[in-house]
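Pasting as-is:
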Amino acid sequence: MSLTDSLGRKHDYLRISLTDRCNLRCLYCMPHNDMQFMPPSRLMSANEIQKLAEIFVEHGVRKIRLTGGEPLMRKDVGSILQNLSTLKVKLAITTNGYFLGQYFDTFEKVGLTSINLSLDTLRKDRFEVLSQRKGFDQTWQNIEEAIRRGFYVKLNMVVMKDRNEDEINNFVELTRHMPIHVRFIEFMPFAENRWDFSQTVSYAAILNRIEQTHSFARIEDAANDTARNFRVNNAPGTFAVISSVTNPFCDTCNRIRLTADGKIKNCLFAQNETDLLTILRNGGDVERLIKENIAAKHAARGGLPEFSADNAPKVFSKNRSMISIGG
């Protein structure tokens, strides 16, 4: 049994946000005004997360990634992972890495082997500007420890014009010496992050910059991969570009998102959500709502216009902020 939309895309990858809270205040993710976090009563409990996850797994989900906010700020994340590890799924997590050192043993215990780490600069001073918080040294130490312990580490860098694009090749250089998988992500529009198309460093521009310094080759992408993958000659690591804005991958999308307050989004940019948590708490038919939501998925961008359209900043800003969606 699978969750299939009207275009025949099968959805077997669920991303569950545990919280909209984060210890950092990254400019592209957190609204620039005062962020109002959800009260605990609105969030899914560990038991509710498990019940919903079981329904998704019964309908073909084979991979679950925990996201946030910062998922490791959730005090019961260990219990949530332990519960999810009883399901027949591959477990993964996306984190900013700051609290990672406290959870390596937990990850190993539940069989979680894949960690996505968000890091937009390798400079301590710039880290404090982009995230508006301190913590680079601890974050980098945790990244090194994750690699030492044998975790599959993807390092996600959101590339922003005139903010950090000059570090692209420094990130690529990491792959020449470490078994790390760097992914450059085009800056995307969300509520109140002041996005404009001119601030996006495109897929082509990223590769052009790398070509000035490194020789590299295209390598095979995994099925349903959002990234175009490359490897510098003989490097232990790889790099990739996630080009959601200039070269999207909507035709092979297999992702479902569940926000921390239990809303299903069939696309990162979808502005129509379905409230599963309230229905679950009231004993309603959650399965039917999931199927209806997936069936109604648009061909691309949640049915919104091209990112280059004049009204794109206004239209896309009506979506949630990235931190309240859950990546």
